[in-house]
């Protein structure tokens, strides 16, 4: 019953914060629970991130498939300073994502803080949730900096 209460609270928070992603996700999970399809929850938990990243990648690659992006646009990534910064940013982001995944494997209860922090970011900062891996990656980086400063 606690799970349903949390999901309803997330639906309300999503509605108040005008976050259709949080609202929809919480609604879908509540429906899964209410129609007794809990057996699918482990699959959603295990594969949901992969599916989310798949659809996110599909959305980013659509301009290539639709012809809106040409070879000249790709070469611009290697011939302009902003392109080089974007390449660097992409490399750093994927590195941080891998550190975030490692952190979640070692300390899985951090996901609670990441989810609540993401909700706060969505509702109060008008942020966009792109996934817990980046949040975990930033958390891993911040923890490493704090450890270096504290000498631990």
From TrEMBL:
It is a multi-pass membrane protein. The keyword Membrane applies. It is found in: Cell membrane. Keywords: Cell membrane, Membrane, Transmembrane, Transmembrane helix. It comes from the Bacteria. The keyword ATP-binding does not apply. Signal peptide: none annotated. Pfam families: DUF441 (PF04284). The chain crosses the membrane at residues 6-36, 48-66, 78-98, 110-128, 134-151. InterPro entries: UPF0756_TM (IPR007382). GO terms for cellular component: plasma membrane. PANTHER family: UPF0756 MEMBRANE PROTEIN YEAL (PTHR38452). Belongs to the UPF0756 family. This is UPF0756 membrane protein EAV92_09855. The lineage of its organism: Bacteria, Bacillati, Bacillota, Bacilli, Bacillales.
């Amino acid at each position: 019953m606690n799970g349903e209460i949390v999901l309803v609270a997330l639906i309300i928070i999503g509605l108040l914060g005008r976050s259709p992603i949080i609202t929809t996700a919480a609604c879908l999970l509540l429906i899964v629970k209410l129609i007794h399809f809990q057996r699918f929850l482990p699959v959603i938990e295990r594969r949901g991130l992969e599916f989310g990243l798949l659809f996110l990648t599909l959305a980013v690659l659509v301009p290539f498939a639709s012809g809106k992006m040409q070879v000249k646009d790709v070469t611009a990534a290697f011939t302009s300073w902003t392109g080089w910064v974007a390449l660097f940013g992409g490399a750093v982001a994927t590195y941080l994502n891998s550190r975030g995944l490692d952190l979640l494997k070692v300390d899985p209860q951090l996901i609670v803080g990441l989810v609540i922090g993401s909700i706060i970011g969505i509702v109060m900062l008008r942020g966009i949730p792109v996934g817990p891996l980046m949040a975990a990656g930033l958390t891993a980086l911040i923890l490493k900096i704090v450890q270096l400063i504290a000498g631990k």
